[in-house]
Amino acid sequence: MNERRADGSAGDVDYGRIGSGYADHRRPDPRIARRIAEALGDARTVINVGAGSGSYEGAARAVTAVEPSRAMRARRPAGLPRAVDAVAEDLPFADGEFEGAMPLFSVHQWTDVKAGLREVRRVTRGPVVILTCDPKLVRDFWLHSYAPEVLETEARRYPPIEDMADALGGTGTVETVPIPLDCTDGFNEAYYGRPEMLLDPAARQACSAWSFVDDGGRRRFTESLRRDLDSGAWDERHGHLRRLPAYEGSLVLIRATPA
To answer: Which residues lie across from 90 on neighbouring strands?
Structure first.
């Protein structure tokens, strides 16, 4: 049985409370969108599981969106199709109904990832394309020195790549997705060379892991990062990142096809 929050959210985050900044800070990046489109290939009918406000749906031709959070469904732009109120673990579709699937930045929100992926595979006869973060790599980001609880939370929430591959079966590939310096999709690593952006509470709120940090932790992060930026200490250690055109961190694209 999936526990649903007051706004319908399934998982450990209430998007009715934290989702207000998504429109401004989680805009799809066209370079990441191209990677997703290439991975979907010729798939025409695509299911987007955990669709949120519809980011990256332009990478597919005909999308059926699934989103349990009422608040996130309400934030979908008028030009996108209305999302179906359902959870990954119980999809109301026939076997093989879709040519492709695109769970993007959503698997870490599912109550039972393996069960959800088995459902996604059941309803998808072609490629399943997952945009996620490798939990083995998330702690390598400089943010860990300032807010370790944020990246420890991400490492705990993101499912292991091997577990997802096993649940999907068939054959698959895992590719690192380079993050552009001016990335418009504001997840934590998107600010690898723009640390000042993470001083903005609204930018942090658009990354769900920050909702697990209490006021004291957020205050300590802000004070320590601002101090190091003002003194030049951050730039002494990480300033080369300001000039790096793209960053290869924990962001990965998994593509699985049936046997």
So the answer is: 87
